[in-house]
Amino acid sequence: MNFKYLYRLGLLIIFLCMSAYSAKAVGSLYDQHWPKREQRAVWLTTIGGLDWPHCYAQSRYSIEKQKAELITILDKLHHAGINTVLLQTRIRGTVIYPSAIEPWDGCCSGVPGKSPGYDPLQFAIEQCHKRGMELQAWIVTVPVGRWNALGCKTLRKKHPHLVVQVQGEGYINPASPQAKTYLANICAEITRRYDIDGIHLDYIRYPETWHLAIGADVARHNITAIVEEVNKTVKHVKPWVKTSSSPIGKYADLTRYSSKGWSAYNRGYQDAKQWLQQGYMDELYPMMYFRDNQFYPFAADWRETGAYPIASGIGIYQLLPSEANWSIDEVVRQLNVSRRLGLGQAFFRSKFLTDDVKGIYTYVANHFYRYPALLPVNPYHNATVAPPVDLKVMKGLTIRLFWNEPQQKSSTPLYYNVYASNSWPVDVDNPQCLLAVRQSRCSMTIEGANYQYWAVTAMDSYGNESVALQQPSPKGMSVLGLLPNDGIWLKLRHASETMALLKDLTGRTVSIKSIVKDKGVSISHLAPGYYYAYSLNKKGITHRLGLFMISKKSK
């Protein structure tokens, strides 16, 4: 019996146990363990104004109305804990920004080929960043719309051998030598001109109606070549900009579960696991719009790809009575199983989340995403980031924080994360202490916060976070609940492991020691100061035991 079978069997047992619970019970069982890092994304669709916009920008007044609608949407998403917006930027051979390559889509102005009088992409980026959310430009790659629609006609005129017709629709031919260059140029244009956080490739596959005249391996090679070229081109412009995609939600048939003829590898010719493993993509958002044994075993299969950022695409549109009429319990189970597998979550689509269909927004905002979360670190770019300096806290009717940039420069744009607590030092490992993420300025004003102590970290564009800059402790402050020690031995009454890991207040590991029965951990080698103690098991997993202070060295 192999590991994969045991893993899926265990997951099936989890699912069967969870299936008896209501949404409220499942939430109380599982979502009290909030991760500090997690992908929490939403697809925000612009085609036909499905999610946004719902009015056309044709005058100064209507431009402001269109902007105000997006602000309302982003405010709701931010309140719900979303940290990534996948904004549909290229639609069907048309775009929502002033491009030198493709014409305007009509979703914003109401007229295909006409500008709405402002730059929707630039505005969306600014508003997302203002709220500490990332924005990835969602690029619909292969489909270019109806054969005689503006996007398809324009592309056929410029590149007559690039587009093929399938049942009245135009598609970029992945086998064309021009395909990878053309799509990479669009992605490069966006990356060069905008402060985006990622390029998100959608429909990067052969359509199911395509009569494939070549072998499957050749078809997969053609799709992978496009992915590789886009990644290479984007990274050449800005190495920190992520590349991602939304493959079909089931990678391939499993030993015990069939994909029922709808898999990424065999039907869409998407070798998405290879894209991650070869470094052609930084993260994936597989479209897992299924339930029961078409969701849970395949979610586990994606996780087995390795420690790469992957988010389950959750089909919340299936909650609608006009669709599958799922109960809210089904979505709650999928969210919680995804989290327990170490997968992020991505909601399709934005409108169904913000409309609170069957209570999904209420559950996410009040329970599942109760605390903010940082995004996973880019697996290909681990780096040390210098902390900010000179934190000052001014308390009045509002609390104002000020700090200065790190003394060492970063190779990418820098952001700041703010933590708060009523105990000092602030525990920056605790997600419940995370107050604000991805702030671009070296100051922050907070209203209605009743915290006493504050800490700030710096973070580069790859997600690497510095050690914490803690608010200086007030003179004469006493810290309650310290672990007892005599300067030589740290007493650990409740430690169940045999090893202990000790860190200073900056988060730097200063010692790994054996736990000696009836004595504790030797700390005679440490200088006076405050330290954190963690238990350390054989798998390298740590559990925080508490804070201790060495006041002076015993002779």
Can you offer a commentary on this structure?
The chain is built from 12 helices and 24 strands. The chain has helices at residues 3-18, 23-30, 60-80, 120-130, 150-158, 177-193, 216-237, 272-277, 296-303, 328-340, 350-354, 360-368, and strands at 40-44, 84-90, 134-140, 143-146, 163-166, 169-172, 198-202, 242-245, 283-284, 311-314, 344-347, 389-395, 399-404, 414-421, 434-439, 443-446, 453-460, 469-470, 489-490, 499-504, 509-514, 521-522, 529-536, 542-550. The strands form 6 sheets. An 8-stranded parallel β-sheet has the order 9-8-7-3-2-1-11-10. Strand 23 and strand 24 form a beta hairpin. The chain is globular and about 80 Å long.
* Average pLDDT level: 90
- Give the tally of β-strands: 24
Calculate the terminal CA-CA distance, rounded to whole Å.
Answer: 58 Å
Helix content: 25-40%
Low-confidence stretches: 16-31
Residues in β-strands, percent:
15-25%
Instruction: Please compute the radius of gyration using only Cα atoms.
Output: 26 Å
- Per DSSP, the total helix count is 12
Widest sheet: strand order? 9-8-7-3-2-1-11-10
Largest sheet: 8 strands, parallel
What class, by secondary structure content? alpha/beta
Shape: globular
Characterize this entry briefly:
With 555 residues, the protein is of the alpha/beta class.
